[in-house]
Amino acid sequence: MDLNDVTLLGTLARAPRAETPNERSPFTSCAVRIGERGRDGQTYYTYIPFDAYGKAAVTLSGLAPDATVLLRCKLTWQRDPTKQTKGALRVIAWSITVDMPSDNSRVNQTKVRKPP
């Protein structure tokens, strides 16, 4: 049995970029910044780009940079249509939980059905 489930917790590294290609379901891309403290005490950051579709994209497009998010994702492989490279690994967010900084007792959660 295989499992393709990735959970990421971090802050948005930049403002989400929303698009609606060919008037289909909404699409938003962004990057999450994840900090990790090193042995020397300094914080090192990893930036992971990800995409969201549908309701998750709508939720994401209304967020500001530095919003704290919990992402439930899956990994997909996208082929390069130009065939110059083999392709790239992509992270697709299907569930986004947002920590609302104005009221830390509330959590706004958007769950979206897993893409096929």
Description:
With 116 residues, the chain is mainly β. The chain has one domain (6-111): OB fold (Dihydrolipoamide Acetyltransferase, E2P). 7% of the residues lie in helices and 52% in strands. It has one helix and seven strands; from the N terminus they run E-E-E-E-H-E-E-E. The protein has one helix at 54-61, and strands at residues 6-12, 17-19, 27-37, 43-53, 68-78, 88-99, 107-111. The protein has a five-stranded mixed beta barrel with strand order 1-3-4-6-5. The longest helix is centred in the middle third of the chain and has 8 residues, at 54-61. The radius of gyration is 15 Å and the shape is globular. Mean pLDDT is 82; it is low at 102-116.
Count every beta strand, where a strand is a DSSP E run of 2 or more residues.
Answer: 7
Helix/strand order, N-terminal first: EEEEHEEE
For the largest beta-sheet, the strand count, sense and barrel status come to:
5 strands, mixed, barrel
Strand proportion: over 45%
Overall geometry comes to globular
Report the average pLDDT across residues. Answer: 82
- Please write the CATH class name: Mainly Beta
Q: Look up the CATH topology.
A: OB fold (Dihydrolipoamide Acetyltransferase, E2P)
Proportion of helical residues: under 10%
Please report the number of helical segments.
1
Number of structural units classed as domains: 1
| Rg, nearest Å | 15 Å
Distance between the termini: 17 Å
